[in-house]
């Protein structure tokens, strides 16, 4: 008997569908992992000691071949961010003294995409704790062995943009010997930022400096050495530099001039005597238009010791100080600068001749004509008040005119002393009050 049951064939096992989205996600994760591993691996590679040693050796070789410089240093590199740092850079001097250059850190952070575009752009430059000692004679550096690389005879390509984005110099020290003048600065900081069209915004600060020099003074027919031990107390400047103009937004300089000829007489910065130096500039613009001389315009405040005269001309011997506060401008069509301001001074003399014990005057220079609307001075044990002084120095015989001159209590002993005749006059003659009006003539009688 045949059974009515039929066998049911086994069902086929269906193959699972592939999840292409998941596969794509895994591939992308792998790709990005590889991309992220490249800089990480490169960073580990360039920080390895063999690569550092190779970089140091190649850089030292290039310095010897291209510049003839011998130097020792260490190199540190990173990929993210892209940065190359040279530490403990030492350039030895050839005179047996301390190193010519010693830098604790010199680093550059190039701009990666600018380099890919074929532009030289070192990005940010950092220099920290730099010491530079140079000896210059006749315009040549004599304590460092170097040479300039050979250049092609063709014209150099015009630079249209800055090769760096910023420059930061922190705590630099310069020890310079320039033709016998020894200058040692300390605490020099410079911050420069590149702007459009090859222009720069620059801030500079100098904590102080000592300037030593020797020059000969003529005294009684013989030359005697005078030791100058001057001091720069502080310098602070903010500048804007471009191809066509320089703008001194502000500049402040404080210092002190050595008023004595002996050694060991360097003045202090807190001195308020005649040796004090103070210069302040604000909004001074120096621009060149065409082929003529540059145009200069701005505000100046200055106080200078007259002892500076014997630095330029050893036969001159000045004492006291002179100051000016006002506006200045120099144009190409005038021989004298345009000046409008106040002239002051105290204890002023030159080679024994007293200019004024005290001086206060308004000064106006325009169109090569010098005018002094008012002047007050102490001289000859008295005072003098002058109005309407006018001098035309470039006209024939140098015309001069004075509207009014009033003197009071000027005496004969004071005059003899101030014109360096004798400090002890036997004649005690007081000129009393004197009034002179409408004076006109020439300074040159010929």
Helix content: 10-25%
Q: How does the major sheet shape up?
A: 19 strands, mixed
Morphology: elongated
Beta-sheet strand percentage?
Answer: over 45%
| Strands, total number | 19
User: How large is the radius of gyration?
Assistant: 37 Å
Chain-averaged pLDDT: 81
Structural class: mainly beta
Span between N and C termini? 165 Å
List unreliable stretches of 5+ residues. 30-38
Number of separate helices: 5
Helix and strand string, N-terminal first? HHEEEHEEEEEEEEEHEEEEEEHE
Produce a short descriptive summary.
This protein is mostly beta strands. The protein has helices spanning 20-46, 49-67, 112-116, 309-312, 412-418, and strands at 72-78, 83-91, 101-109, 124-137, 140-141, 166-178, 181-195, 199-219, 222-241, 245-256, 276-287, 295-305, 318-330, 338-350, 353-366, 369-379, 382-391, 399-408, 433-442.
């Amino acid at each position: 008997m045949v059974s009515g049951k039929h066998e049911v064939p086994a069902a086929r096992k269906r193959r699972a569908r592939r999840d292409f989205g998941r596969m794509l996600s895994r591939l992308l994760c792998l790709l990005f992992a590889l991309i992220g591993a490249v800089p990480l691996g490169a960073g580990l590679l360039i920080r390895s000691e063999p690569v550092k040693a190779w970089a140091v050796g190649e850089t030292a070789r290039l310095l010897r071949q291209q510049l003839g410089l011998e130097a020792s240093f260490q190199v540190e590199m990173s990929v993210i961010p892209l940065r190359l740092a040279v530490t403990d850079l030492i350039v030895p001097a050839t005179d047996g003294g301390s190193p010519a250059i010693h830098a604790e850190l010199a680093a550059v952070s190039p701009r990666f995409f600018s380099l890919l575009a074929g532009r030289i752009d070192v990005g940010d430059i950092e220099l920290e704790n730099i010491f530079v000692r140079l000896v210059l004679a006749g315009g040549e550096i004599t304590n460092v062995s170097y040479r300039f690389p050979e250049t092609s005879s063709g014209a150099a390509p015009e630079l249209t943009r800055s090769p760096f984005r910023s420059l930061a110099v922190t705590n630099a020290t310069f020890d310079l010997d320039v033709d016998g003048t020894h200058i040692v600065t300390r605490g020099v900081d410079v911050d420069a930022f590149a702007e459009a069209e090859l222009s720069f915004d620059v801030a500079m600060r100098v904590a102080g400096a000592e300037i030593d020099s020797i020059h000969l003074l003529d005294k009684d027919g013989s030359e005697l050495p005078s030791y100058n031990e001057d001091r720069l107390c502080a310098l602070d400047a903010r500048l804007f530099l471009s191809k066509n103009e320089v703008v001194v937004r502000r500049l402040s300089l404080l210092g002190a001039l050595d008023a004595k000829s002996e050694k060991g007489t360097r003045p202090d910065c807190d001195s308020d005597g005649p040796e004090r130096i103070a210069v302040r500039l604000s909004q001074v613009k120096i621009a060149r238009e065409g082929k003529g001389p540059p145009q200069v315009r701005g505000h100046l405040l200055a106080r200078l010791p007259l002892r500076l005269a014997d630095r330029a001309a050893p036969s001159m011997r000045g004492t006291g100080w002179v100051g000016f506060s006002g506006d200045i401008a120099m144009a190409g069509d005038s021989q004298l600068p345009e000046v409008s301001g106040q002239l002051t001074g105290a204890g002023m003399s030159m080679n024994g001749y007293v200019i004024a014990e005290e001086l206060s005057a308004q000064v106006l220079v325009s169109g090569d004509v010098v005018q002094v609307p008012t002047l007050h001075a102490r001289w000859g044990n008295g005072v003098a008040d002058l109005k309407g002084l006018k001098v035309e120095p470039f006209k024939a015989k140098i015309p001069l005119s004075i509207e009014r001159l009033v003197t009071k209590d000027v005496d004969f002993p004071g005059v003899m002393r101030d014109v360096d005749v004798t400090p002890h006059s036997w004649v005690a003659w007081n000129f009393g009050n004197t009034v002179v009006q409408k004076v006109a003539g020439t300074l040159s009688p010929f």
